[in-house]
Every structure is written in structure tokens, then in C-alpha cells.
Amino acid sequence: MTFRILFVGMAALICFSGAAMGSPQRIVSTNLCADQYLIALADKSQIAGLTLYARDPLLSFYYERARGYPIVPSTAEAILPLKPDLIVGNPMRRLQTRALLKHFGFPILDIGTDQNFADIVAHTRLIAAAIGHPERGEALIAAMRAALERIPEHSGGWVPVAVHYQRQGFVTGPGTLMDEMMRRAGLRNLASQFGNAQLARLDLESVVEAQPDYILFTNDRRDIRDWGVALLAHPVFRVLRSKYVYIPDRLTVCGGPSFPYAVAALARAVHGRMARNER
Q1: What is this structure's pTM?
Q2: For 161-278, CATH number?
């Protein structure tokens, strides 16, 4: 567990030491990943608003469940009338809105970006305690650990190399949740060969030259909404079709409850492809 998580956890315990006086009943989320944690851990009656992305089937793991929750834009104008007794968000996002809400004295619980499973465990406990359901946090952690343990490991000595190729040619590097996901699925991250950057741009020529065993996509390459995604539909990927693996963004964009499902989906896809190639 990182010092950052320990510091945030200590601050939250101080801010919410009065939980015994009553759990928050008007919780507002200003972050897609906070949406996922709150749906998993809070009573529906405690939620005053989730983000506009909560119901997006491309991005939200719980998009179907989110249809039963109120949705509120992540603006001060929309949140202030709700008089929330807890706002959950990311300290690096919507800084002006966050500053204004803090100015009016609304309690804010900041959760950073999950970089590994230890962060997921820490944030689960942090949010569960803040909303008055620590036992649900422990139950979710136990369920996630059990799900990860059920994922079969690749028994061969050869470790395939994979690259997570994203819109605009970005690749996900070491020290990220995707990097841990790839490792747990039995893969070695190609991006680690190009330095320690968590996010870096890699041109198509370098991808082809590196000859990874698998190219992992989380963007739907058929859904070309802009030039950034259009790159993923480049003709070179038709030549490399036998190498690519698609895992939906809604499983990977956040940590939390979706993480074991993302690892399992990636492991199934890779191990299935390897089994077919061995025939």
C-alpha cells in the first residue's frame, strides 16, 4: 500500500470519525470510478446522484444497474441544490467545481486513480467506511480476491509479449492497473521495453517492428467517433488480426469491482488463442 493511500485513508478516518452519528444519506459522485464503488457498496437510498457516465455501456461496468439511480451533472450548479452530505470524486478532476463545493463546506472524499490491486483494496475500505458499510467493503474485497484466485494461470515457461494500444497511439506502461492486469493474465508488457512511462505514444511502425504476440484493444475499433479512434482501424491491423485481443473499456477504465472480470476476460482470450495456435 502506497504512502498516498495511507495518507488519504488517515485523513478520511479523521473526517468521518463521526460516522457513528449517522451514515451519509445524500451522496453525490463526481467521478465514473466513484460511481462503480458506490453502486457496489452503498444503499440505493443513500445515492443522491451518479455521474452522466454511469449509464454509458461503453465506459461503465455497472451501466445496467445505474439506470435505477439518479444522475446529476458534475457541476456545482447541479450539485449544490442537492445539499449532499458526502461528495466522492477524484482530486485531480473538476478542480474548479471541487474548490467551489469545498468553499461551501460540503464534505469531499477524494479517491485517486487505482494503479494496482492494493489501491483497489484501500479505496474499497476507504469508501465503505465513509458511507457506513465497512462490512460490505470487506465482503467485496474477499469476493474480488476469490475471483482472482480462480483465474487459471498459464503453466508454460514462455511468457507472451503484449501491448495495450489505445486511441491516438498511446500505450499503457508499467506501474499501471493495466500492467498488473496483463501480468496476472500471464503476459509481459511490451511498453516496459520503452521506459518507465505509465503512458507513452508509440507509432504503428514501432508496434509492427516489435512483433508483440498480442495487441490488446479496449476501444471498439468499429466505433470510429474521431480521428483518435480511427488510428485503431488502420489497415495494418487487418494484417495483424490474428494477434489482437479486445477487452471492453467498461472493464478496464476503472479499478474496483470490474478488475477481476477484466483479468478473467483477458486470461480467457489469451489462453484460448494460445490453445488454438498449439493445435
Answers
A1: 0.83
A2: 3.40.50.1980
